[in-house]
Write a structure and sequence with these properties.
It is a single chain. With 652 residues, the chain is α/β, with parallel strands linked by helices. The protein is built from 26 helices and 15 strands. It has an eight-stranded mixed beta sheet with strand order 1-2-3-4-5-7-8-6. Strands 9-12-11-10 form a four-stranded parallel beta sheet, sandwiched between helices. α3 runs parallel beside α7 and α15 (370-408) runs parallel beside α19 (467-489). The two termini are 67 Å apart.
């Protein structure tokens, strides 16, 4: 064999190690395994396989050698193997204390341990057990329970064989990535099936544990004592202000977690304590417990949003929970699948553990460090684009609706539209559709997206969309609609053939002016302006004029002229008053928008806006430096000019 493949990278590692020691697995054919043991050809018949499960935490095989002797060989976690193993002179360990010492030593080094035991079975003993095992496997109703009982029965009285310790190396840049996520105010929980010592060592390697001596460790099986301990730590952390308290990390094992999850009040207290901690390490956790932790924290965040509202407004807390404090789960193995599926966002890592996590996730990445870019760059950029897309879509639709609504005050609320239906249908499908689509695909909060990774503190602090921002945009829609309707309406005059007092004349002028206003609005909210974007913004408004000429021409060709629309395009576009009205509407609306944007930039800028201004300052600095380098022949003169210029740029 050129290489080995297996369901677990630990098993592949162990088989490769044994190959280097002279114990070479050659192949498996018809349940017969062929081995080369120190140059000697051997074969073993595989009689039974007792599969691994998250509840059993072990796996066994029953084999028969060439001398017809039958053996059971079992490997698994030390927590389940130690009670099933005997020690003494006939084994490789004299006592349980010696085994515990070995396992503890390996775990403190961050190694993942597997313990091995074996025993010999007689032919009669195996035949009786095999018959019962096959009957249990054929049982339809209680198949799993009966098979578990049979496996539990045979996996007893094992002789201790040894312990293997495998180093599960961290991927590159994992500590740095976790630190960036913590700087972004993201709470990190590490949920693993390893021993407590191994989990703590991994936490130290990832820089999650700042002070090992101050860890809050819960290893208590008594519900009353555990509840008192959790409540005591919760009261201590609640008394201290967040700004002044030191970093607190919590460690809990699987048995204690089972006690916590069995009691509702205890689960609530533990969730409150975990939310106050900077990091939580959960060790010896089964896949079902991983999923239960995710569910616990999701319910806690939901209840916190609801309970924080006044009576009568509790329902708004559920709405707030939809857009705040989401749970993201990331894993690389099959045992992480329940946790990934239960979370709001699941991320799977493609690696040596297989593709089960990747296939069941929302996003798939190749390295853990890519999570930083996924959240800080793609996450923030997508949120920024979607937020502005939602605001703008409501804004432009409310604006056109209000233009028609304002006219109802002057037509006795008869329902008479001031704009023809065909033109209204083209408003969303043609004239205003393309610019916002280009914006949603190409715009970004800052020009260089790497800036978002350099300043993780800005994560999740965007004010692009919340209740106040949303309604402010809708108020602007009301105001812009009023400007676009009332200025043309009260500017009508009578002068013979240049009469613009007709219903559809006023409506068309209002429509063209509104089209210019809403098109400029998407240009005003954009921060990353490209040539393609400017082209489509300009195109979306300019295309109106040939459209109206084509509209009049099509009515004549099709023979269905509308007396109210006949010759309207020539009459409006040849009138200087109509052009002045449209320009005035756009200037008034644009002036209000620029004033509001200037006040925001000066008095209450957001973090993203400050980062964008920093980028502009850096570009100016680089441009002036290059200019000085090109103009200055003397290095001394060049350095003097640069030293005088750079401080002035830093004051921008």
């Amino acid at each position: 064999l050129s290489g080995y493949q297996g369901p677990s990278p630990d098993e592949v590692c162990i088989v490769n190690t044994m190959k280097q020691l002279g114990w070479i697995f050659k192949g498996n054919k018809s349940n017969v395994m062929y081995l080369d043991i120190l140059g000697k050809k051997c074969k073993f018949r595989l009689l039974n396989v007792l599969d691994f499960s998250s509840d059993r935490k072990r796996m066994s095989v029953i084999i028969q050698d060439q001398r017809k002797k039958i053996y059971l060989i079992c490997k698994g976690a030390d927590a389940v193997m130690i009670p099933r193993t005997t020690y003494g002179p006939a084994t490789n360990a004299s006592s349980v204390e010696e085994v515990d010492k070995i396992v503890h030593g390996y775990s403190c080094k961050g190694l993942r341990c597997l313990m091995y035991g074996a025993k010999q079975l007689s032919q009669e003993e195996w035949e009786v057990w095999d018959q019962g095992f096959r009957q249990a496997a054929n049982d339809i109703e209680n198949r799993e329970e009966r098979m578990a009982e049979c496996m539990e029965e045979i996996e007893k009285g094992l002789h201790f064989m040894g312990i293997t310790a495998v180093e599960d190396k961290l991927q590159e840049e994992v500590p740095e990535s976790i630190q960036i996520l913590r700087d972004a105010n993201i709470k990190v929980w590490v949920i693993t099936g390893d021993k407590q010592e191994t989990a703590i060592n991994i936490g130290i390697s990832c820089k999650l544990v700042s002070n090992q001596e101050e860890l809050m460790i819960f290893n208590e099986g008594c519900k009353e004592k555990l509840g008192d301990s959790i409540n005591a730590h919760l009261a201590e952390l609640s008394r201290k202000e967040k700004s002044s308290r030191k970093e607190k990390e919590l460690v809990i094992d699987g048995k204690t977690l089972a006690v916590v999850l069995s009691d509702q009040s205890l689960s609530k207290s533990f969730a409150s304590l975990g939310a106050l901690c900077d990091c939580v390490l959960v060790c010896r956790a089964s896949p079902s417990q991983k999923a239960a932790i995710v569910t616990l924290m999701k319910n806690y965040e939901k209840n916190k949003c609801v309970e924080g509202k006044m009576w009568g407004l509790k329902w708004t807390g559920k709405l707030d929970h939809m857009i705040s404090n989401k749970v993201l789960s990331i894993g690389d193995g099959a045992n992480d699948v329940p946790m990934i599926q239960r979370a709001d966002i699941g991320v799977g890592i493609v690696g040596k553990e297989g593709r089960q996590a990747s296939n069941n996730s929302d996003f798939s990445i190749a390295r853990f460090r890519f999570l930083v870019r996924l959240l800080l760059v793609h996450g923030q950029t997508t949120q920024y684009r979607n937020a502005n897309l939602i605001k703008y879509s409501f804004y432009k639709n409310i604006a056109i609706s209000m233009v028609m609504f304002y006219y109802q005050f002057y037509c006795g609320f008869s329902g008479q539209p001031s704009i023809d239906m065909l033109t209204l249908n083209f408003y969303n499908t043609v004239f205003t559709a393309v610019p916002i689509i280009i914006f949603s695909l190409m715009d970004s909060p800052v020009e260089c997206l790497e800036t978002l990774m350099k300043y993780p503190q800005t994560y999740n602090k965007s004010r692009s969309l919340h209740t106040g921002i949303f309604w402010k945009a809708q108020v602007k829609a009301f105001v812009d609609a009023a400007i676009c309707f009332f200025i043309p309406y009260y500017s009508t005059f009578y002068s013979g053939s240049d009469d613009l007092s007709g219903l559809f004349a006023v409506g068309r002028i209002s429509y063209i002016a509104l089209q210019g206003v809403v098109t400029l609005e998407v240009f005003m909210i954009a921060r990353h302006v490209t040539t393609l974007f400017v082209t489509f913004v300009f195109y979306s408004w300019v295309i109106l004029f040939p459209f109206f000429y084509l509209f009049d021409w099509s009515m004549q060709v099709l023979g269905v002229p509308d007396p109210g629309q006949a010759g309207m395009s020539n009459q409006i576009f040849s009138s200087a008053a109509a052009w002045l009205q449209m320009v005035l509407v756009i200037l008034v609306s644009l002036g209000l928008r620029l004033g509001e944007k200037g006040l925001k930039a000066v008095f209450y800028p957001d973090d993203i806006q400050l980062l964008a201004e920093m980028e502009v300052g850096e570009k100016k600095t680089q441009a002036i430096t290059r200019s000085l380098l090109n103009q200055s022949n003397s290095p001394k003169k060049m350095l003097k000019k640069i030293s005088k210029t750079i401080p002035s740029l830093n004051n921008l």
